[in-house]
Automatic annotation (TrEMBL):
The keyword Transcription regulation does not apply. This is Acyltransferase PGAP2. The keyword Transmembrane helix applies. Coiled coil: none annotated. One of its GO terms (cellular component) is Golgi membrane.
Length: 254
């Protein structure tokens, strides 16, 4: 509960107060619902176009790049990613402050904290790039955005798991134990799916076997879903926090 009169010049004036758990759920639901909607529309209305490959063999699922490159899927995905990007940058800053508080005076962990922030920002920026530059428009930019997204995502997960491994003996509540365990599980699952997707993508391009690209698309979905789930662990990390939008107190009093 906030104490003191709303108009007190000695404290910020809250305009919006949102529990962080609701904030985290809403942030993750935006890309999740957008991706599901794009996949559904592609399969129902653009099946032949979205599942077409240069090998011209049987394929039953579109890749994510294909699913978000047509109309109206393109605009649905861009809207969802655009809306979720600002909260993602805010969460990156929140984690940075959280780690700095936990590792004050410990240089190796503080360096990892800074690197985690850079990776988080790069991951979100790469996602924005591959979202707003589709594979059918400028393939090279879309491809580079995808590479930045995947590489920074995996590195961010790895660093995060390392930082939580260091603070495992200093948990303040059971939710942090749950958070660490799920972070590690999701990271291992994510990297396994990345390897599987890379294998099936390469195999498809080399041998043009029927159904192989479908397996690539399936594991690509799992990579993205597990990435979303990893970021969702902030639900436990900041479960007792609130997100405020407030006006600053006046510098001068009249």
């Amino acid at each position: 509960m906030l104490q003191g009169p709303y108009g007190s010049p000695d404290r910020d004036r809250p305009l919006i107060r949102l529990p962080f758990r609701s904030f985290a759920v809403g942030t993750v639901l935006l890309p999740l619902s957008g991706l599901i909607a794009c996949l559904f529309i592609s399969l129902v209305y653009h099946f032949d176009d979205s599942t077409y490959t240069h090998c011209q063999v049987s394929n039953y699922l579109p890749s994510i790049s294909s699913a978000i490159s047509r109309v109206p899927e393109r605009y649905i995905w861009r809207c969802c990613i655009g809306l979720h990007s600002a909260p993602r940058y805010l969460v990156a800053a929140a984690y940075f402050n959280f780690y700095c508080g936990r590792f004050a005076g410990r240089l190796p962990e503080l360096l990892l904290t800074a690197l985690a922030l850079i990776c988080s920002v790069a991951e979100n920026t790469g996602l924005l790039l591959l979202t707003y530059v589709s594979s059918t428009e400028t393939y090279s930019l879309h491809k580079n955005g995808f590479i930045v997204f995947i590489a920074s995502s995996l590195l961010h997960m790895l660093i995060t798991c390392r930082l939580w491994h260091v603070i495992r003996t200093h948990y303040v509540n059971p939710e942090e134990i749950t958070s660490r365990r799920w972070k590690l599980r999701l990271f291992l699952f994510n990297i396994s799916c990345c390897l599987a997707a890379a294998y099936f993508f390469r195999r498809h391009n080399m041998f043009c076997e029927a159904g192989v690209y479908t397996l690539f698309a399936l594991f690509e979905y799992l990579v993205v879903f597990s990435n979303m789930a990893f970021h969702m662990t902030a639900f436990w990390d900041f479960g007792n926090k609130d997100v405020f939008v407030a006006t600053s107190p006046e510098d001068k009093r009249y």
